[in-house]
Amino acid sequence: MGLIFKNETFRDDFTFSNSPAAIKRFPFPFPEDRYMYTVNIEPHVPGPKGSVYEFPIDIDEHYLADMRDRALVLQEDPLRCQSLPHMLTAEWDLVELLMTSLSESYPEHFTLTREGDNWHWINRPMGIEQKFIFGDVATLPYRPMEYISRQCQGDFCLLDQRDGDLWMDAGIVSSQADWSLDFDVGMSFKEWHAPVPMAHEVGVFDRALKFLLNMQQGKPVRRLNWTMTINPRLDTSPENYHKWGKDRTTVTPENVGDKVHLRVELQGLWRLPRSNALVFSIRAYLIKMEELVTVPKWARRLHRVLKTLPEPIADYKGTTRYRQTTIDWLAKYDDGAPTSKGCWPD
Amino acid sequence: MLSTGIISRPVYPGLAADLKARHNLFIIEGEGAAAVLDLAAKTPAGFFERSTLLYCPAGSAGKDYEKQLEGLKPKALWTFPTPATVMFRLKGVLQTATMGTRLYITGTEPFIGLALKEALEAGIDHKSLITEHRGSAKRRVQCVHCKGFTENVVTNPVTCNHCGLNLLVRDHYSRRLGAFQGVCIDAEVPGEAPAPEEIFR
Amino acid sequence: MTGEAEFRVRVAETETVAEGIRRLRLVPLGRSALPLFSGGAHVVLTMQDDGRVLRNPYSLMGSPFDASSYQISVLRTADSRGGSIYVHNKLRDGSELSISAPVNLFPIDRRARRHLLIAGGIGVTPFMAMMEQLEREELPFELHYCMRSKTGGAYWSWLRDIYGRRVNTYFDDLQQKLPLRRLVENQPLGTHLYVCGPSGMIDWVLNEARDAGWPEENLHFERFSAPPAGAPFTVELAKSRCTLNVEPTQSILEAIEAAGLVAPCLCRGGACGQCESGIVSCDGTIEHNDHFLTDAEKASGGKIMICVSRLKNAGGRIVLDL
User: In this structure, are B166 and B122 located in the same domain?
Assistant: First the structure.
């Protein structure tokens, strides 16, 4: 695979950047020149080689830096990882899903050997080797969900299915776009989505819930979600909002290219075998404007999407203060030419 | 973060008698007593013989609710000086309660939230609880930043009692925590915030 | 969609375990393992019987931790569609068939302080997988298992050996009655009750529990019901623009699947709501056989559960928003 893991930061001096390869594979989320709210769920099947969809769980050049940032988040605030007592079986299901996925997709980096319940896990990039008994919490240095998610990019939520609904009863959330796991733990599907504007009226969540309740093993699905972030900060949690909120006022016409980031979440959902729960993965990708505009199609398209974004959505995504400045900066990359449908670069 | 109009705030459908319950456990604060008396007018004889009432007069101390509740001739009526002492008794009662016990909670929203948490801890599903809001619309707010709870919140925004940040009181509510979410209202431009307005009366 | 054939399997073992009850072990073809599953799950067997396609759900009774095979047990009934008769008469060692991925509509509620399991006859099968899981996860449970007779009941001796005092048996022919009232009277708060067995028994257990003041949230049940047979009629799919004949022993859902189309569904027994379809128009009387729609919804004539419900009249015609 030839992945070279970068040494960069998602806080303080913000040395994060994307290599040209990372830019090309960025999951640009807009297939058309205007904003459309859809649930846009599709089967999570293997995508083009080298793309973020190639493997069920995507590891990229930011892996080690991402995991270091997660460790820092958990060090400062352990409540970013919580699990209600009845979710232990689901946590083990997650360990199995992630370890088998990583070892099958990236055999040069990860190895898993299993003899019954005796498992042997090797994570070469992080220098971890662990023998443990699957199902026995005392044989791992952390509880199962925390153990494996400290070695896997993306936030993970475990959703208990009961009473015709889904309940966010466990999760590790250190790279969220502004929602609090600690607050939302225990909520039902519509309850935790309550802050999302406009979608409730048109029954989007009723249909989505019905679809998710019907999900079966072996048929995962995925969708993209997007927002914008100032500086390549992974931890844009409400908990720290009083620290990063003012970043939104630091955007000037001169620094848009460096500071304004498009943040896309690749969300995956899998049905888990032993617990019958669903796992919801939220994998964030960041790209700064000056990297994005190296793909002319994306530059034109993003300009047009931001111009047509309805106010409540722009507000909910936190872009109010810098949206116009960003639109103005992008305007010089939009020659008005027609742009092909779909998200891939031309 | 500055958006308003969230639709997730809880709804308390109102007291209705579960005539099949073997035992009814009422947890009542202040004006909630009036809700129980209203219910009593609609229930058949015998219902309150199977009921235990835990009552904290709170802000309604001047009224004679206690006497009226006694008049229902419940199996037991226990009166407590504060919500916290009600919850202490409730916790004890729930430890030995059996299936067939139905809980009814009525009073202010923070009071309902406290009792609900005890019920959840005792293994009762929140949908099994019968609730009615009476009295002030004051809120319990958790500061998402320091996780501290600020009680008896009547204004928006409100100052966090623990860390001092100026908080927007959202309608986003957590059953598990029994509180609304408070988020720093002037994180982007410190000091730029509307004056507190008393809106949760 | 769900219920569709996903895995080819071979019958590796059959055994008559009690009067009229046959156990089958199914091993995967073309792969080394089947998916692990959660206790309470079932698979849908797709059986080809003389040109007719039968799809019936059966609970997985084997260990949820054994990926090498699945086990089901089937009671032979005089059911007019012939599913159980096919399993008893036509499936032999070596028979090949297709099964769906496991689906769980009868899961354990792991928040429970205690799990009270009540089984009637073949309804014990989902509990067998559940108990293995409860045991491994160290969650408290007890089983109350009602059977016609010792020779007509399956696995009771084996279950007693494994789970000891947690298994209580009641044989009709020995006048042993399930002490249901006592059972539901004094369970500690946080107990969850699960019942599976003949429909009449399920109704009796649920009503006793409700009369004892149990809230719905603590009651769980699974009915083994096959779609009833009836008169033939026509169904028109407004969106797909086609018209299909529904045979007497075929459900609307099966008629749609036989035509190569796909409709949302999950339990195939009228309980889960996934197959709810809008009615555009109807020439005939609807026979609602489901447990999902409210009385008002059934009376309104606007919705129908296509996996079990049909038209009463031969030659009737119903137009669906599909």
Answer: no
Chain B residues with CB-CB distance to C189 below 8 A: 94, 97-99, 101, 122-124
Interchain pair B124, C189: CB under 8 A: yes
The H or E element spanning position B84 is helix B83-96
Report cis status (omega within 30 of 0) of the bond before B157.
yes
Domains, chain C, in order of start with CATH, read: 6-104 (2.40.30.10), 114-222 (3.40.50.80), 233-320 (3.10.20.30)
What is the reported pLDDT for C257?
85
Q: Is C104 on the interface with A (CB under 8 A)?
A: yes
Mean pLDDT by 10 residues, chain C (322 residues): 75 95 96 95 89 87 95 87 86 93 94 97 97 96 97 96 97 97 96 96 97 97 83 89 87 86 81 85 88 85 89 88 88
Flag whether B89 is in a domain: yes
Tell me which residue range forms the domain holding B84.
Answer: 23-133
- pLDDT of amino acid C4: 65
In a domain? residue B11: no
Known catalytic residue: A223? yes
Choose among B125, B172, B187: nearest Cβ to A245. B187
Report the alpha-carbon angle A224-A226-A228, nearest 5: 160
Query: Nearest to residue A144, comparing CAs of C35, A166, C104, A152?
Result: A152
- Residue C268 CA to residue C306 CA, distance in Å, equals 9
pLDDT tens-digit readout, A84-115? 999 999 999 999 999 999 999 999 999 999 99
Residues of B in contact with A245 (CB under 8 A): 1, 184, 187-188
Q: If you measure CA to CA, which chain A residue comes closest to C3?
A: A216
**In chain B, how many domains are there?**
2
> What letter would DSSP give residue B148?
-
d(CA C266, CA C41): 12
Say whether both B178 and B156 belong to one domain.
yes
Residues 18-77 of A with CB under 8 A from B: none
Catalytic residue among A223, A248, A283, A300: A223
Contact A274 C133 (CB under 8 A): yes
